[in-house]
Fold these 4 entries.
Entry 1:
Amino acid sequence: MDRSQKADAVAQLNAVFNEVGVVVVTRNLGMTVAQSTALRLKVREVGASFKVAKNSLAKLAIKDTDYAGLDDLFT
Protein backbone atom coordinates (compact mmCIF):
# COMPACT_ATOMS: atom_id res chain seq x y z
CA MET A 1 0.00 0.00 0.00
CA ASP A 2 1.60 3.26 -1.08
CA ARG A 3 1.23 6.62 0.62
CA SER A 4 -1.73 7.80 -1.48
CA GLN A 5 -3.59 4.53 -0.85
CA LYS A 6 -2.99 4.93 2.87
CA ALA A 7 -4.32 8.50 2.76
CA ASP A 8 -7.43 7.27 0.94
CA ALA A 9 -7.92 4.47 3.48
CA VAL A 10 -7.62 6.94 6.38
CA ALA A 11 -10.12 9.30 4.73
CA GLN A 12 -12.61 6.45 4.17
CA LEU A 13 -12.25 5.21 7.74
CA ASN A 14 -12.64 8.75 9.06
CA ALA A 15 -15.88 9.10 7.11
CA VAL A 16 -17.12 5.85 8.63
CA PHE A 17 -16.21 6.98 12.16
CA ASN A 18 -18.07 10.26 11.57
CA GLU A 19 -21.23 8.53 10.27
CA VAL A 20 -21.76 5.56 12.58
CA GLY A 21 -23.52 5.48 15.91
CA VAL A 22 -21.51 2.62 17.41
CA VAL A 23 -17.96 1.36 16.95
CA VAL A 24 -16.89 -2.07 18.18
CA VAL A 25 -13.17 -2.81 18.28
CA THR A 26 -12.17 -6.47 18.22
CA ARG A 27 -8.91 -8.29 18.42
CA ASN A 28 -8.91 -11.36 16.25
CA LEU A 29 -5.87 -12.94 17.85
CA GLY A 30 -6.61 -16.60 18.38
CA MET A 31 -9.74 -16.64 16.24
CA THR A 32 -9.96 -19.24 13.55
CA VAL A 33 -10.98 -18.35 10.02
CA ALA A 34 -14.30 -20.08 10.63
CA GLN A 35 -14.93 -18.03 13.79
CA SER A 36 -14.02 -14.80 12.03
CA THR A 37 -16.31 -15.65 9.12
CA ALA A 38 -19.16 -16.46 11.50
CA LEU A 39 -18.67 -13.11 13.26
CA ARG A 40 -18.73 -11.24 9.95
CA LEU A 41 -21.95 -13.01 8.91
CA LYS A 42 -23.67 -12.23 12.22
CA VAL A 43 -22.67 -8.58 11.96
CA ARG A 44 -24.05 -8.34 8.43
CA GLU A 45 -27.28 -10.11 9.42
CA VAL A 46 -28.14 -7.25 11.77
CA GLY A 47 -27.40 -4.63 9.11
CA ALA A 48 -24.00 -3.55 10.39
CA SER A 49 -20.66 -3.56 8.62
CA PHE A 50 -17.35 -5.15 9.54
CA LYS A 51 -14.13 -3.38 8.58
CA VAL A 52 -10.60 -4.65 8.99
CA ALA A 53 -7.95 -1.94 9.19
CA LYS A 54 -4.34 -1.56 10.13
CA ASN A 55 -4.06 -0.18 13.66
CA SER A 56 -1.88 2.73 12.57
CA LEU A 57 -4.39 3.81 9.91
CA ALA A 58 -7.35 3.43 12.27
CA LYS A 59 -5.53 5.52 14.87
CA LEU A 60 -5.08 8.33 12.35
CA ALA A 61 -8.67 8.05 11.11
CA ILE A 62 -10.26 8.19 14.55
CA LYS A 63 -8.74 11.57 15.41
CA ASP A 64 -11.25 14.42 15.62
CA THR A 65 -14.22 12.05 15.79
CA ASP A 66 -16.57 11.14 18.63
CA TYR A 67 -14.52 7.96 19.04
CA ALA A 68 -11.11 9.59 19.53
CA GLY A 69 -10.99 8.11 23.04
CA LEU A 70 -10.67 4.64 21.54
CA ASP A 71 -7.27 5.37 19.99
CA ASP A 72 -5.41 3.55 22.78
CA LEU A 73 -7.09 0.30 21.65
CA PHE A 74 -5.25 0.45 18.34
CA THR A 75 -1.78 -0.80 19.23
Note: The chain has three helices and no strands.
Entry 2:
Amino acid sequence: MSFLGPSNDVTSVDLFQRDNAKEHRTFKYDILDKNNPSLVIRRGDPFFMAIQLRSAYDQDNNKIRLEFLFGM
Protein backbone atom coordinates (compact mmCIF):
# COMPACT_ATOMS: atom_id res chain seq x y z
CA MET A 1 0.00 0.00 0.00
CA SER A 2 1.44 3.37 -0.92
CA PHE A 3 0.58 6.74 0.54
CA LEU A 4 1.06 10.05 -1.21
CA GLY A 5 2.96 12.79 0.55
CA PRO A 6 5.53 12.74 3.34
CA SER A 7 5.17 10.31 6.21
CA ASN A 8 4.43 11.50 9.72
CA ASP A 9 6.06 8.96 12.02
CA VAL A 10 4.50 7.79 15.27
CA THR A 11 6.84 8.54 18.19
CA SER A 12 4.74 7.01 21.00
CA VAL A 13 1.41 5.40 21.80
CA ASP A 14 -0.32 5.46 25.19
CA LEU A 15 -3.09 2.88 25.62
CA PHE A 16 -4.15 4.13 29.06
CA GLN A 17 -4.27 0.52 30.27
CA ARG A 18 -5.36 1.24 33.84
CA ASP A 19 -7.84 4.00 32.94
CA ASN A 20 -9.43 1.82 30.25
CA ALA A 21 -9.55 -1.10 32.69
CA LYS A 22 -11.69 0.97 35.06
CA GLU A 23 -14.11 1.87 32.27
CA HIS A 24 -14.24 -1.74 31.00
CA ARG A 25 -14.57 -3.29 34.45
CA THR A 26 -11.35 -5.29 34.01
CA PHE A 27 -9.29 -3.49 36.67
CA LYS A 28 -9.11 -6.56 38.95
CA TYR A 29 -7.26 -8.67 36.36
CA ASP A 30 -3.79 -9.73 37.60
CA ILE A 31 -2.22 -8.83 34.24
CA LEU A 32 -2.73 -5.13 35.10
CA ASP A 33 -0.44 -5.39 38.16
CA LYS A 34 2.70 -5.52 35.98
CA ASN A 35 4.97 -2.50 35.36
CA ASN A 36 3.97 -2.47 31.68
CA PRO A 37 0.44 -3.95 31.74
CA SER A 38 -1.43 -5.23 28.72
CA LEU A 39 -4.55 -3.51 27.47
CA VAL A 40 -7.61 -5.44 28.71
CA ILE A 41 -10.86 -4.15 27.24
CA ARG A 42 -14.29 -5.55 26.48
CA ARG A 43 -15.55 -6.06 22.96
CA GLY A 44 -17.96 -3.39 21.73
CA ASP A 45 -17.07 -0.70 24.26
CA PRO A 46 -15.06 2.41 23.32
CA PHE A 47 -11.54 2.87 24.67
CA PHE A 48 -9.04 5.71 24.80
CA MET A 49 -5.57 5.95 23.34
CA ALA A 50 -3.14 8.76 22.50
CA ILE A 51 -0.84 8.75 19.49
CA GLN A 52 2.14 11.12 19.45
CA LEU A 53 3.34 12.05 15.97
CA ARG A 54 6.69 13.54 14.95
CA SER A 55 4.99 16.63 13.48
CA ALA A 56 1.53 18.17 13.62
CA TYR A 57 -1.30 16.06 12.19
CA ASP A 58 -2.73 17.45 8.95
CA GLN A 59 -6.05 15.76 8.21
CA ASP A 60 -5.86 16.79 4.54
CA ASN A 61 -2.43 15.19 3.96
CA ASN A 62 -1.91 12.59 6.71
CA LYS A 63 -3.66 9.25 7.03
CA ILE A 64 -3.62 7.09 10.14
CA ARG A 65 -3.75 3.34 9.73
CA LEU A 66 -4.26 1.23 12.86
CA GLU A 67 -3.56 -2.48 13.04
CA PHE A 68 -4.74 -4.35 16.14
CA LEU A 69 -3.42 -7.80 17.04
CA PHE A 70 -5.21 -9.92 19.58
CA GLY A 71 -3.98 -12.79 21.72
CA MET A 72 -0.29 -12.10 21.22
Note: The chain has a mean pLDDT of 82.
Entry 3:
Amino acid sequence: QMITFIAWLIFGALAGWVASILTGKNRKMGPVANIVVGILGAFIGAGIMNTLGMAVPVGFSVIGFLVAVGGAVVMIGAMGLIRRG
Protein backbone atom coordinates (compact mmCIF):
# COMPACT_ATOMS: atom_id res chain seq x y z
CA GLN A 1 0.00 0.00 0.00
CA MET A 2 2.70 2.51 0.98
CA ILE A 3 4.74 1.69 -2.15
CA THR A 4 1.67 2.33 -4.33
CA PHE A 5 1.05 5.64 -2.58
CA ILE A 6 4.67 6.72 -3.08
CA ALA A 7 4.56 5.63 -6.73
CA TRP A 8 1.43 7.75 -7.32
CA LEU A 9 3.14 10.73 -5.68
CA ILE A 10 6.13 10.34 -8.00
CA PHE A 11 3.88 9.84 -11.03
CA GLY A 12 1.86 12.94 -10.08
CA ALA A 13 4.99 14.99 -9.44
CA LEU A 14 6.44 14.10 -12.83
CA ALA A 15 3.17 14.82 -14.65
CA GLY A 16 2.73 18.13 -12.81
CA TRP A 17 6.34 19.11 -13.44
CA VAL A 18 6.09 18.41 -17.18
CA ALA A 19 2.78 20.31 -17.34
CA SER A 20 4.29 23.28 -15.50
CA ILE A 21 7.19 23.35 -17.97
CA LEU A 22 4.81 23.15 -20.94
CA THR A 23 2.72 26.04 -19.60
CA GLY A 24 5.70 28.18 -18.56
CA LYS A 25 4.70 28.08 -14.87
CA ASN A 26 7.62 25.98 -13.62
CA ARG A 27 9.33 28.85 -11.75
CA LYS A 28 6.10 29.73 -9.91
CA MET A 29 5.23 26.19 -8.83
CA GLY A 30 7.06 24.17 -6.20
CA PRO A 31 7.27 20.40 -5.76
CA VAL A 32 4.09 20.16 -3.67
CA ALA A 33 2.11 22.12 -6.26
CA ASN A 34 3.51 19.88 -9.01
CA ILE A 35 2.36 16.76 -7.13
CA VAL A 36 -1.13 18.16 -6.49
CA VAL A 37 -1.54 19.44 -10.06
CA GLY A 38 -0.24 16.16 -11.50
CA ILE A 39 -2.56 13.96 -9.46
CA LEU A 40 -5.60 16.18 -10.01
CA GLY A 41 -4.59 16.44 -13.67
CA ALA A 42 -4.76 12.66 -13.97
CA PHE A 43 -8.36 12.76 -12.73
CA ILE A 44 -9.22 15.65 -15.04
CA GLY A 45 -7.61 13.95 -18.04
CA ALA A 46 -9.42 10.69 -17.30
CA GLY A 47 -12.69 12.60 -16.92
CA ILE A 48 -12.21 14.31 -20.26
CA MET A 49 -11.41 10.99 -21.96
CA ASN A 50 -14.43 9.36 -20.33
CA THR A 51 -16.69 12.21 -21.45
CA LEU A 52 -15.42 11.81 -25.01
CA GLY A 53 -16.17 8.08 -24.85
CA MET A 54 -12.52 7.06 -25.04
CA ALA A 55 -10.93 4.25 -23.04
CA VAL A 56 -9.32 5.52 -19.86
CA PRO A 57 -5.89 3.98 -19.21
CA VAL A 58 -5.47 2.18 -15.91
CA GLY A 59 -2.19 2.06 -14.02
CA PHE A 60 1.19 3.38 -14.99
CA SER A 61 1.76 3.67 -18.72
CA VAL A 62 2.95 6.17 -21.29
CA ILE A 63 -0.65 6.84 -22.31
CA GLY A 64 -1.64 7.29 -18.67
CA PHE A 65 1.22 9.72 -18.17
CA LEU A 66 0.20 11.73 -21.25
CA VAL A 67 -3.39 11.84 -20.01
CA ALA A 68 -2.19 13.09 -16.60
CA VAL A 69 0.02 15.75 -18.21
CA GLY A 70 -2.83 16.83 -20.50
CA GLY A 71 -5.22 17.10 -17.58
CA ALA A 72 -2.64 19.03 -15.57
CA VAL A 73 -2.14 21.46 -18.46
CA VAL A 74 -5.93 21.99 -18.59
CA MET A 75 -5.97 22.56 -14.83
CA ILE A 76 -3.08 25.06 -14.91
CA GLY A 77 -4.81 26.90 -17.76
CA ALA A 78 -8.10 27.01 -15.88
CA MET A 79 -6.36 28.28 -12.74
CA GLY A 80 -4.76 31.04 -14.82
CA LEU A 81 -8.14 32.08 -16.20
CA ILE A 82 -9.69 32.12 -12.74
CA ARG A 83 -6.85 34.23 -11.32
CA ARG A 84 -7.15 36.76 -14.14
CA GLY A 85 -10.93 37.07 -13.78
Note: The chain has a mean pLDDT of 86.
Entry 4:
Amino acid sequence: MLITLSVLWGGSFFFVGVAVAELPPLTIVTLRVGLAAITLWVIVLIMGLRPPKSIKIWLALIGMGLLNNVIPFSLIVWGQTHIASGLASVLNATTPLFGVVVAGLLLADERATPLKLVGVVVGFLGVVMMIGVPTLDMVGHGATLAQIAILVAALSYAFAGVFGRRFKGMGLSPVVIAAGQVTGSSLVLAPVALYIDGLPTLLGTDAPSLGTWVAILTLAVFSTALAYVLYFKILASAGATNIMLVTLLVPVSAILLGSFFLHEALEWVHFVGMGLIAMGLAVIDGRLIRLVR
Protein backbone atom coordinates (compact mmCIF):
# COMPACT_ATOMS: atom_id res chain seq x y z
CA MET A 1 0.00 0.00 0.00
CA LEU A 2 2.90 2.35 0.78
CA ILE A 3 4.40 1.76 -2.68
CA THR A 4 1.02 2.32 -4.38
CA LEU A 5 0.55 5.53 -2.40
CA SER A 6 4.01 6.73 -3.45
CA VAL A 7 3.08 6.17 -7.12
CA LEU A 8 -0.15 8.15 -6.72
CA TRP A 9 1.63 11.01 -4.97
CA GLY A 10 4.69 10.75 -7.22
CA GLY A 11 2.54 11.83 -10.14
CA SER A 12 1.06 14.78 -8.22
CA PHE A 13 4.18 16.96 -8.65
CA PHE A 14 3.92 16.49 -12.43
CA PHE A 15 0.18 17.27 -12.56
CA VAL A 16 0.61 20.35 -10.35
CA GLY A 17 3.44 21.44 -12.65
CA VAL A 18 1.04 21.25 -15.61
CA ALA A 19 -1.81 23.05 -13.85
CA VAL A 20 0.19 26.00 -12.40
CA ALA A 21 0.92 27.20 -15.93
CA GLU A 22 -2.74 28.22 -16.35
CA LEU A 23 -4.40 28.33 -12.92
CA PRO A 24 -3.56 30.14 -9.64
CA PRO A 25 -2.29 27.97 -6.73
CA LEU A 26 -5.33 28.28 -4.42
CA THR A 27 -7.72 27.52 -7.29
CA ILE A 28 -5.77 24.34 -8.09
CA VAL A 29 -5.82 23.19 -4.45
CA THR A 30 -9.55 23.96 -4.08
CA LEU A 31 -10.45 22.11 -7.28
CA ARG A 32 -8.25 19.21 -6.18
CA VAL A 33 -9.91 18.69 -2.79
CA GLY A 34 -13.41 19.64 -3.99
CA LEU A 35 -13.46 17.11 -6.84
CA ALA A 36 -11.85 14.51 -4.56
CA ALA A 37 -14.63 15.07 -2.00
CA ILE A 38 -17.34 14.51 -4.64
CA THR A 39 -15.58 11.34 -5.82
CA LEU A 40 -15.23 9.94 -2.31
CA TRP A 41 -18.84 10.65 -1.23
CA VAL A 42 -20.07 8.84 -4.36
CA ILE A 43 -17.94 5.86 -3.29
CA VAL A 44 -19.30 6.12 0.27
CA LEU A 45 -22.88 5.99 -1.05
CA ILE A 46 -22.11 3.05 -3.36
CA MET A 47 -20.57 1.16 -0.43
CA GLY A 48 -23.64 1.83 1.71
CA LEU A 49 -21.67 3.70 4.36
CA ARG A 50 -22.94 6.66 6.35
CA PRO A 51 -21.24 9.99 7.07
CA PRO A 52 -20.42 10.73 10.73
CA LYS A 53 -23.01 12.70 12.70
CA SER A 54 -20.88 13.73 15.69
CA ILE A 55 -19.74 17.37 15.76
CA LYS A 56 -16.59 16.21 17.58
CA ILE A 57 -15.68 13.90 14.68
CA TRP A 58 -16.34 16.62 12.09
CA LEU A 59 -14.15 19.10 13.99
CA ALA A 60 -11.39 16.47 14.02
CA LEU A 61 -11.85 15.92 10.25
CA ILE A 62 -11.63 19.67 9.58
CA GLY A 63 -8.48 19.84 11.73
CA MET A 64 -7.02 16.93 9.77
CA GLY A 65 -7.92 18.69 6.54
CA LEU A 66 -6.08 21.82 7.66
CA LEU A 67 -2.90 19.93 8.59
CA ASN A 68 -2.94 17.40 5.76
CA ASN A 69 -4.43 19.39 2.86
CA VAL A 70 -5.02 23.12 3.26
CA ILE A 71 -1.63 24.12 4.69
CA PRO A 72 0.74 21.73 2.83
CA PHE A 73 -1.10 21.69 -0.53
CA SER A 74 -1.25 25.51 -0.65
CA LEU A 75 2.41 25.91 0.34
CA ILE A 76 3.67 23.24 -2.09
CA VAL A 77 1.64 24.49 -5.05
CA TRP A 78 2.72 28.08 -4.36
CA GLY A 79 6.32 26.91 -3.89
CA GLN A 80 6.26 25.17 -7.28
CA THR A 81 5.54 28.52 -8.93
CA HIS A 82 9.04 29.64 -7.84
CA ILE A 83 11.20 26.48 -7.75
CA ALA A 84 11.53 23.30 -9.82
CA SER A 85 9.48 20.20 -8.95
CA GLY A 86 12.69 18.19 -8.34
CA LEU A 87 13.81 20.56 -5.59
CA ALA A 88 10.25 20.61 -4.22
CA SER A 89 10.21 16.82 -3.95
CA VAL A 90 13.62 16.77 -2.17
CA LEU A 91 12.41 19.33 0.37
CA ASN A 92 9.15 17.39 0.76
CA ALA A 93 11.22 14.26 1.51
CA THR A 94 12.23 15.85 4.82
CA THR A 95 8.77 14.88 6.15
CA PRO A 96 10.02 11.66 7.86
CA LEU A 97 12.81 13.63 9.57
CA PHE A 98 10.20 15.92 11.09
CA GLY A 99 7.89 12.95 11.59
CA VAL A 100 10.31 10.91 13.71
CA VAL A 101 10.83 13.92 15.99
CA VAL A 102 7.15 14.97 16.22
CA ALA A 103 5.86 11.41 16.71
CA GLY A 104 8.66 10.74 19.21
CA LEU A 105 7.63 13.75 21.28
CA LEU A 106 3.84 13.32 21.09
CA LEU A 107 3.19 9.55 20.79
CA ALA A 108 4.16 7.22 23.62
CA ASP A 109 4.30 4.15 21.36
CA GLU A 110 6.40 5.74 18.59
CA ARG A 111 9.41 7.07 20.48
CA ALA A 112 12.33 8.24 18.38
CA THR A 113 15.30 5.87 18.49
CA PRO A 114 18.85 6.30 17.12
CA LEU A 115 18.10 3.48 14.65
CA LYS A 116 15.00 5.27 13.31
CA LEU A 117 16.93 8.51 12.88
CA VAL A 118 19.77 6.72 11.08
CA GLY A 119 17.25 5.01 8.77
CA VAL A 120 15.53 8.29 7.88
CA VAL A 121 18.85 10.05 7.20
CA VAL A 122 20.05 7.17 4.98
CA GLY A 123 16.77 7.24 3.06
CA PHE A 124 16.94 11.02 2.66
CA LEU A 125 20.50 10.74 1.29
CA GLY A 126 19.11 8.26 -1.24
CA VAL A 127 16.53 10.85 -2.35
CA VAL A 128 19.23 13.53 -2.75
CA MET A 129 21.46 11.13 -4.71
CA MET A 130 18.67 10.18 -7.10
CA ILE A 131 17.53 13.71 -7.85
CA GLY A 132 20.92 15.35 -7.45
CA VAL A 133 22.05 17.96 -4.98
CA PRO A 134 19.59 20.78 -5.70
CA THR A 135 20.71 24.35 -6.17
CA LEU A 136 19.48 26.28 -3.15
CA ASP A 137 18.95 29.64 -4.81
CA MET A 138 19.36 31.99 -1.86
CA VAL A 139 19.58 35.04 -4.13
CA GLY A 140 15.99 35.18 -5.33
CA HIS A 141 13.69 36.29 -2.51
CA GLY A 142 10.76 34.30 -3.94
CA ALA A 143 12.85 31.15 -4.31
CA THR A 144 14.04 31.34 -0.70
CA LEU A 145 10.51 31.78 0.61
CA ALA A 146 9.33 28.92 -1.63
CA GLN A 147 11.92 26.56 -0.14
CA ILE A 148 10.89 27.57 3.39
CA ALA A 149 7.22 27.12 2.44
CA ILE A 150 7.76 23.51 1.36
CA LEU A 151 9.71 22.74 4.54
CA VAL A 152 6.78 24.12 6.56
CA ALA A 153 4.48 21.92 4.45
CA ALA A 154 6.62 18.88 5.38
CA LEU A 155 6.34 19.83 9.07
CA SER A 156 2.56 20.14 8.68
CA TYR A 157 2.43 16.61 7.18
CA ALA A 158 4.35 15.36 10.22
CA PHE A 159 1.79 16.85 12.62
CA ALA A 160 -1.03 15.49 10.44
CA GLY A 161 0.33 11.95 10.78
CA VAL A 162 0.29 12.26 14.57
CA PHE A 163 -3.12 14.00 14.66
CA GLY A 164 -4.64 11.34 12.38
CA ARG A 165 -3.94 8.57 14.89
CA ARG A 166 -7.09 9.65 16.79
CA PHE A 167 -9.33 8.24 14.03
CA LYS A 168 -8.13 4.70 14.72
CA GLY A 169 -10.42 4.34 17.72
CA MET A 170 -13.48 5.99 16.14
CA GLY A 171 -14.60 2.95 14.14
CA LEU A 172 -14.77 4.88 10.85
CA SER A 173 -14.03 3.45 7.41
CA PRO A 174 -10.88 4.89 5.74
CA VAL A 175 -13.12 5.98 2.84
CA VAL A 176 -15.37 7.98 5.19
CA ILE A 177 -12.36 9.56 6.95
CA ALA A 178 -10.79 10.51 3.62
CA ALA A 179 -14.10 11.95 2.37
CA GLY A 180 -14.59 13.92 5.58
CA GLN A 181 -11.04 15.27 5.48
CA VAL A 182 -11.21 16.63 1.92
CA THR A 183 -14.74 17.97 2.57
CA GLY A 184 -13.42 19.91 5.56
CA SER A 185 -10.54 21.17 3.41
CA SER A 186 -12.97 22.27 0.67
CA LEU A 187 -15.12 24.23 3.14
CA VAL A 188 -12.04 26.11 4.37
CA LEU A 189 -10.41 26.66 0.98
CA ALA A 190 -13.37 27.60 -1.24
CA PRO A 191 -14.11 31.07 0.25
CA VAL A 192 -10.39 31.88 0.55
CA ALA A 193 -9.74 30.92 -3.09
CA LEU A 194 -12.76 32.91 -4.30
CA TYR A 195 -11.59 35.97 -2.34
CA ILE A 196 -7.94 35.81 -3.48
CA ASP A 197 -8.15 34.26 -6.97
CA GLY A 198 -11.74 35.03 -7.96
CA LEU A 199 -13.88 32.73 -10.07
CA PRO A 200 -11.80 30.75 -12.59
CA THR A 201 -12.52 31.45 -16.25
CA LEU A 202 -14.12 28.28 -17.62
CA LEU A 203 -15.09 29.50 -21.11
CA GLY A 204 -13.47 31.61 -23.81
CA THR A 205 -9.89 32.13 -24.91
CA ASP A 206 -8.63 32.48 -21.32
CA ALA A 207 -10.15 29.16 -20.19
CA PRO A 208 -7.76 26.39 -19.08
CA SER A 209 -6.77 23.93 -21.79
CA LEU A 210 -7.94 20.31 -21.96
CA GLY A 211 -4.52 19.20 -20.71
CA THR A 212 -4.92 21.32 -17.57
CA TRP A 213 -8.37 19.87 -16.84
CA VAL A 214 -7.06 16.33 -17.31
CA ALA A 215 -4.24 17.14 -14.88
CA ILE A 216 -6.72 18.55 -12.31
CA LEU A 217 -9.06 15.55 -12.61
CA THR A 218 -6.20 13.06 -12.31
CA LEU A 219 -4.83 14.99 -9.35
CA ALA A 220 -8.23 14.94 -7.63
CA VAL A 221 -9.39 11.37 -8.34
CA PHE A 222 -6.15 9.41 -8.12
CA SER A 223 -3.56 11.55 -6.30
CA THR A 224 -6.07 12.72 -3.69
CA ALA A 225 -9.25 10.61 -3.37
CA LEU A 226 -7.74 7.16 -3.86
CA ALA A 227 -4.46 8.19 -2.22
CA TYR A 228 -6.10 9.26 1.05
CA VAL A 229 -8.09 6.05 1.35
CA LEU A 230 -4.74 4.23 1.29
CA TYR A 231 -3.21 6.86 3.60
CA PHE A 232 -5.73 6.25 6.39
CA LYS A 233 -5.55 2.46 5.99
CA ILE A 234 -1.76 2.58 6.43
CA LEU A 235 -1.98 5.10 9.29
CA ALA A 236 -4.35 2.81 11.21
CA SER A 237 -2.25 -0.33 10.69
CA ALA A 238 1.36 0.91 10.61
CA GLY A 239 1.42 4.17 12.60
CA ALA A 240 2.35 7.81 12.06
CA THR A 241 6.10 7.36 11.57
CA ASN A 242 5.70 4.72 8.87
CA ILE A 243 3.06 6.61 6.86
CA MET A 244 5.45 9.56 6.51
CA LEU A 245 8.07 7.30 4.91
CA VAL A 246 6.02 7.53 1.70
CA THR A 247 7.76 10.85 0.94
CA LEU A 248 11.05 8.94 0.57
CA LEU A 249 9.40 6.68 -2.01
CA VAL A 250 7.67 9.46 -3.96
CA PRO A 251 10.85 10.52 -5.86
CA VAL A 252 11.51 6.84 -6.70
CA SER A 253 8.04 6.56 -8.19
CA ALA A 254 8.41 9.84 -10.08
CA ILE A 255 11.72 8.75 -11.64
CA LEU A 256 10.44 5.27 -12.54
CA LEU A 257 7.26 6.75 -14.05
CA GLY A 258 9.43 9.07 -16.13
CA SER A 259 11.51 6.10 -17.28
CA PHE A 260 8.52 3.92 -18.22
CA PHE A 261 6.27 6.53 -19.84
CA LEU A 262 8.60 9.34 -20.94
CA HIS A 263 11.57 7.10 -21.83
CA GLU A 264 13.90 9.03 -19.54
CA ALA A 265 17.24 7.30 -18.98
CA LEU A 266 17.94 5.57 -15.66
CA GLU A 267 21.53 6.15 -14.53
CA TRP A 268 23.64 4.37 -11.91
CA VAL A 269 23.01 7.13 -9.35
CA HIS A 270 19.29 6.37 -9.50
CA PHE A 271 19.87 2.74 -8.59
CA VAL A 272 22.29 3.67 -5.79
CA GLY A 273 19.74 6.17 -4.47
CA MET A 274 16.96 3.58 -4.57
CA GLY A 275 19.24 1.15 -2.74
CA LEU A 276 19.89 3.71 0.01
CA ILE A 277 16.17 4.38 0.35
CA ALA A 278 15.46 0.64 0.59
CA MET A 279 18.21 0.34 3.21
CA GLY A 280 16.80 3.25 5.19
CA LEU A 281 13.28 1.80 5.13
CA ALA A 282 14.61 -1.60 6.26
CA VAL A 283 16.49 -0.01 9.17
CA ILE A 284 13.40 1.92 10.31
CA ASP A 285 11.20 -1.18 9.98
CA GLY A 286 13.60 -3.06 12.26
CA ARG A 287 12.73 -6.62 11.22
CA LEU A 288 15.81 -7.03 9.02
CA ILE A 289 18.06 -5.86 11.87
CA ARG A 290 16.42 -8.31 14.26
CA LEU A 291 16.84 -11.12 11.71
CA VAL A 292 20.55 -10.35 11.33
CA ARG A 293 20.97 -10.32 15.12
Note: The chain has a mean pLDDT of 84.
